[in-house]
Amino acid sequence: MSDASQGASRHTDASAEKPTPRSRFGRAWESDFAWKFRHSPVAIIASAVALLIVLAAIFAPLIAPVDPFDPGALNLMNGFTPPGTPNAFTNETFLLGTDDQGRDVFSTILYGLRISLFVGVSAVLFAMVLGVTLGLIAGYVGGWVDTIIMRIADIQLTFPSILVAMLIFGIAKGVTPVGYRDQMAIWVLILAIGLSDWVQFARVVRGATLVQAGREYVQAARLIGRKGPAIMLRHILPNVLSPVLVIATISLALAIIAEATLSFLGVGAPPTQPSLGTLIRIGQGFLFSGEWWILFFPALTLLALALSVNLLGDWLRDALNPRLK
């Protein structure tokens, strides 16, 4: 065999032995993070429950038997129908029963979930953007700017978050014109919860920024003439996002509970746009008269949602902790 043939044969063998490059999904599936997730029953179950609840809320108009907040679809004769029991007057059966106005409890839970999740996610996003921005500025700029931001955060931490949210909600609702209060109630609720929850993001990001600001890559960026905002956004921010993601996941459960608490106290979502907290407040009035299902099923849904998100946040904190690797 000639030298050219032998070279071609060796080239063919090397090409055959060359491994096929893995796809991005394959690399992600074989990562340490994915391996930890696959071997954590708590994370899998919590993710499945949270995903199921979120999908049920998103597709509520398709899943719910009726629109519970459409006055034309209500029948007062269906009021107080127990779960799975035919109504004595209309002979209609409802999976989770009906409330005092004849609304299907299953449908009200699906539509209430939409409000609770929207408020919770929006409030966490607002708190995260505000807290991360202030934390980056405080940690990178330092000096009197850092002192002012952190002292405001320390003062806010001396008060319970729910009281801060109630105070902000009351002030914001007071300055809103009377005719727009119900329309703006959801946005005011998001503002109140977000402003009461930014401190945790700011404190964590500030501490991480102080560490990253002394690294060589930040010093190099300064030497080549990069401005402070560009350094904070393009160099420091990507390196402090891991703890922010963990805090955001845990804060989501707390924001949903805060919304339910405010709505239960009557200072949250309006009756025209009831959330899970509003449904629990309505059901609480009928608990001792025997209509237990009006309170029980919305409360059980809120518990499942908050617990699954909280467990997922706890697992995420452990999975992203470099000391546990």
Q: Can you put this structure into words, describing what you see?
A:
There is one protein chain. With 325 residues, this protein is mainly α. It has one domain: MetI-like (MetI-like fold). Helices cover 69% and strands 0% of the residues. The chain is built from 15 helices and no strands. It has helices spanning 3-17, 24-29, 32-38, 41-58, 60-63, 105-141, 143-157, 161-175, 181-195, 198-212, 216-223, 228-236, 241-264, 276-284, 293-319. The longest helix has 37 residues, at 105-141. The radius of gyration is 27 Å and the shape is globular. The protein starts with a helix and ends in a 6-residue tail after the last helix. The mean pLDDT is 84. Residues 1-23 are annotated as: Disordered. It is a multi-pass membrane protein. Belongs to the binding-protein-dependent transport system permease family. Residues 10-20 have a biased composition (Basic and acidic residues). Keywords: Cell membrane, Membrane, Transmembrane, Transmembrane helix, Transport.
By CATH's scheme, which homologous superfamily applies? MetI-like
Provide the CATH topology: MetI-like fold
The residue fraction in helices comes out at 55-70%
- Give the number of DSSP strands: 0
Pfam family, one: OppC_N
Subcellular location: Cell membrane
Protein name: Peptide/nickel transport system permease protein
Family: Belongs to the binding-protein-dependent transport system permease family.
List the helices and strands and how they pair.
Blueprint: H1 3-17, H2 24-29, H3 32-38, H4 41-58, H5 60-63, H6 105-141, H7 143-157, H8 161-175, H9 181-195, H10 198-212, H11 216-223, H12 228-236, H13 241-264, H14 276-284, H15 293-319
Helix pairs in contact: 4-6, 4-15, 6-7, 6-9, 6-10, 6-13, 6-14, 6-15, 8-9, 10-13, 11-12, 13-14, 13-15, 14-15
